[in-house]
Write a structure and sequence with these properties.
Order of helices and strands: HHEEEHHEHEHEEHEHEE
Distance between the termini: 52 Å
Radius of gyration: 20 Å
Subunit structure: Homodecamer. Pentamer of dimers that assemble into a ring structure.
GO cellular component, one term: cytosol
GO molecular function: thioredoxin peroxidase activity
Function: Thiol-specific peroxidase that catalyzes the reduction of hydrogen peroxide and organic hydroperoxides to water and alcohols, respectively. Plays a role in cell protection against oxidative stress by detoxifying peroxides.
Largest sheet: 5 strands, mixed
Oligomer: single chain
Helix content: 25-40%
Number of domains: 2
CATH topology of the largest domain: Glutaredoxin
Shape: elongated
Main location: cytoplasm
């Protein structure tokens, strides 16, 4: 399918557009397996929005079961999990029913039907070198103020690592709660990184602030 056929508007540039970290996540109203959903109505909650290439496919089925397994943990973190693919609500419902019937796993989160690719295009989920009619495996982390905070992209061939999604939510929430950063391989409960000093006075004061400093610019603390 040509790009112009896929969206009726010659939208190569639209497909190439990417949402920007630190800016409001593109708002949308969509039909889902749990009724109509408007993204901006979810302010006050964090949102993890993820796309999958297609219903009734092997890797996507394993991912849906994986997300279902952590849905309660995400809910406890004030996170609304939302799936999306370029399939109809009917296809989503049939697939969800099949997962529950065949795999014994109930899918508790809404799944968006994006047949016109409107949301997929606004979020840069369509990568034409991969497919013009199926999304890549993208994950968008939207905070409780509606700001896009992080993105992860995977190809259609490889499933996501769900623990990293949870870890990143916790890292972002820790940053917001304590005004800190998280170092490489950080896990919840481990020490975090404080901002480097901006003046000589601040640099000298570090010695008495109770931080674990490796150098003047690299200091850790517990939160």
């Amino acid at each position: 399918m040509e790009l112009e056929d896929a969206c009726g508007c010659g939208c190569e540039d639209e497909y190439a557009a990417m949402p920007i970290l630190g800016e409001p996540a593109p708002d949308f109203t969509a039909l889902t397996t749990q009724g109509e959903l408007k993204l901006s109505d979810l302010k006050g909650k964090w949102v993890v929005l993820f796309s999958h290439p297609a219903d009734f496919t092997p890797v996507c089925t394993t991912e849906f079961m994986g997300f279902a397994a952590v849905a309660d943990e995400l809910k406890a973190l004030n996170v609304q999990l939302i799936g999306l693919s370029i399939d109809s609500v009917s296809a989503h419902l049939a697939w969800i029913h099949a997962i529950e019937e065949k795999m014994g796993v109930e899918i508790p989160f809404p799944v968006i039907a994006d047949l016109d690719m409107r949301i997929a295009s606004r979020y840069g989920m369509i990568h034409p070198a991969m497919s013009n009619t199926a999304t890549v495996r993208s994950v968008f982390f939207i905070d409780d103020k509606g700001i896009l905070r992080a993105m992860i992209y995977y190809p259609q061939t490889n499933g996501r690592y769900i623990p990293e999604i949870i870890r990143l939510v916790k890292a972002l929430q820790t940053t917001d709660a304590h005004g800190v950063s998280t170092p490489v391989n950080w896990q919840p409960g481990e020490k975090v990184v404080v901002a480097p000093p901006k003046t000589v006075a601040q640099m000298k004061a570090r010695a008495g602030e109770g931080y674990e400093c490796k150098d003047w610019y690299l200091c850790y603390k517990s939160v």
